[in-house]
Amino acid sequence: MDQNMMFLVLIVVVMVGMMWWQSRKAKQQQGKTQDFRSNLKPGDQVATFSGLIGTVESVDLDIDQIVINSEGTLSRWRIQAVTEPPVVPNYVSDEEFAKQQEEEKDQEEQTAEPNDVTETVNAETVETAGNDADQTPREEEQSEGENPENSSENSENKESSAK
Questions:
Q1: Cα angle at 108 between 116 and 113, to 5 degrees?
Q2: Beta carbons of 56 and 44 less than 8 angstroms apart
Q3: Where exactly are the structural domains of the chain?
Q4: Which fold has domain 41-88?
Q5: What family does this chain come from, according to its entry (predicted)?
Q6: Does the predicted model carry a pTM greater than 0.85?
Q7: Per residue in 61-110, pLDDT tens?
């Protein structure tokens, strides 16, 4: 019974800790949003939750309204509907990307040139050493002209020719 009670208490403590952590994060997020909205000034880029993107023309915090200019069209919104504009990534064309990749490759080759000589020497040494070590004893026997599968027949032929 004592172990079951400790397990139950542990589960309750973990659940209370998770709820406290989540509420703390939610309050931090609300604080960030409130700071963003209270610091809005004309010229700031904003977006609405419905998707309108534009710049702030005027802000009236007394009545919680904001006027947004979107491509020459002015519209009035409640300040609660305003959020930070989405981050638009910079577009890089395929040609520009390929050029960047080539430049990076050239830079890597320039920094790697002094090491190429030692790598070539090491590769040749490995290849030379590897060629000698690649042959197994069985292959050496075959290269001498003796077939290992027929070695019993060869020994029988030698014995019969000796008689």
A1: 25
A2: yes
A3: 1-39, 41-88, 90-141
A4: SH3 type barrels. (2.30.30)
A5: Belongs to the YajC family.
A6: no
A7: 888 899 999 888 899 999 888 988 877 777 777 888 888 889 998 888 88
